[in-house]
Structure to design on (79 residues):
């Protein structure tokens, strides 16, 4: 499954989210994560600037806002 992680540079919460996602992939989760810096992608600033990091499923339009853990990520991507 391909998901988008909305964040920005120098965001310690975004870095924590990336670590958790990396751990999920290392544990065998079938995930491909595309990181999007909302500072560079202005169309995402209004909906997500105050909520980052946010995990977004472009197929369904659902999102999972911070804070989240590995169990919540797993529940999020199980359809």
């Amino acid at each position: 499954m391909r998901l988008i992680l909305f964040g920005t540079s120098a965001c310690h919460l975004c870095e924590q989210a990336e670590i958790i996602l990396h751990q999920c992939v290392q544990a065998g989760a079938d995930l491909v994560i595309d990181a999007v810096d909302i500072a560079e992608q202005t169309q995402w600033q209004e909906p997500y600037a105050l909520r980052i990091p946010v995990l977004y499923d472009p197929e369904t339009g659902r999102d999972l806002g911070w804070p989240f853990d590995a169990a919540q990520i797993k529940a999020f991507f199980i359809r």
In short: The two ends are 11 Å apart (CA to CA). The chain has a mean pLDDT of 93.
